């Protein structure tokens, strides 16, 4: 049962992170196309946003291992 729960947790986290990364990057490219002079600021903010989105699968990975080993 723990392995199934861990798999579901990782699946949800991976899907959520993929969607979140895609939205962040697409909006950054859209903003760059509209105002190229702000590309440095937009890129910096995009990297911060992607890092925050990627925390979710890492935490889900840790929780999945905790659930599996319980």
From TrEMBL:
The Swiss-Prot or TrEMBL record describes its family as follows: Belongs to the ATPase C chain family.
The UniProt record lists the V-ATPase proteolipid subunit C-like domain at 4-66
Q: What does this protein do?
A: Key component of the F(0) channel; it plays a direct role in translocation across the membrane. A homomeric c-ring of between 10-14 subunits forms the central stalk rotor element with the F(1) delta and epsilon subunits. F(1)F(0) ATP synthase produces ATP from ADP in the presence of a proton or sodium gradient. F-type ATPases consist of two structural domains, F(1) containing the extramembraneous catalytic core and F(0) containing the membrane proton channel, linked together by a central stalk and a peripheral stalk. During catalysis, ATP synthesis in the catalytic domain of F(1) is coupled via a rotary mechanism of the central stalk subunits to proton translocation.
Q: Which residues form a coiled coil?
A: none
Molecular function via GO: hydrolase activity; lipid binding; proton-transporting ATP synthase activity, rotational mechanism
Q: Main localization of the protein?
A: membrane
> Which UniProt keywords are present, listed alphabetically?
ATP synthesis, Cell membrane, CF(0), Hydrogen ion transport, Hydrolase, Ion transport, Lipid-binding, Membrane, Transmembrane, Transmembrane helix, Transport
Q: What is the lineage of its organism?
A: Bacteria, Bacillati, Bacillota, Bacilli, Lactobacillales
The protein's matches in Pfam families, at most eight in alphabetical order, are given as: ATP-synt_C
Any one annotated GO CC term: proton-transporting ATP synthase complex
Is Transmembrane a UniProt keyword of this protein?
yes
Spell out where the chain crosses the membrane. 46-68
Q: What is this protein called?
A: ATP synthase subunit c
| Gene3D superfamilies linked | F1F0 ATP synthase subunit C (1.20.20.10)
Point out the annotated site residues (description: Reversibly protonated during proton transport). 54
Subcellular location(s) per record: Cell membrane; Membrane
The membrane-topology field of this record reads: Multi-pass membrane protein
* InterPro entries with a match to the protein in the record: ATP_synth_csu_bac/chlpt (IPR005953), ATP_synth_F0_csu (IPR000454), ATP_synth_F0_csu_DDCD_BS (IPR020537), ATP_synth_F0_csu_sf (IPR038662), ATPase_proteolipid_c-like_dom (IPR002379), F/V-ATP_Csub_sf (IPR035921)
- Tell me the domain of life: Bacteria
């Amino acid at each position: 049962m723990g392995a199934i729960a861990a798999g579901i947790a990782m699946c949800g986290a991976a899907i959520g992170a993929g969607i979140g990364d895609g939205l962040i990057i697409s909006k950054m490219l859209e903003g760059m196309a509209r105002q190229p002079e702000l590309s440095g600021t937009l890129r910096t903010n995009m990297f911060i946003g992607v890092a925050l989105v990627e925390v979710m699968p890492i935490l889900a990975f840790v929780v999945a291992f905790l659930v599996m080993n319980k």
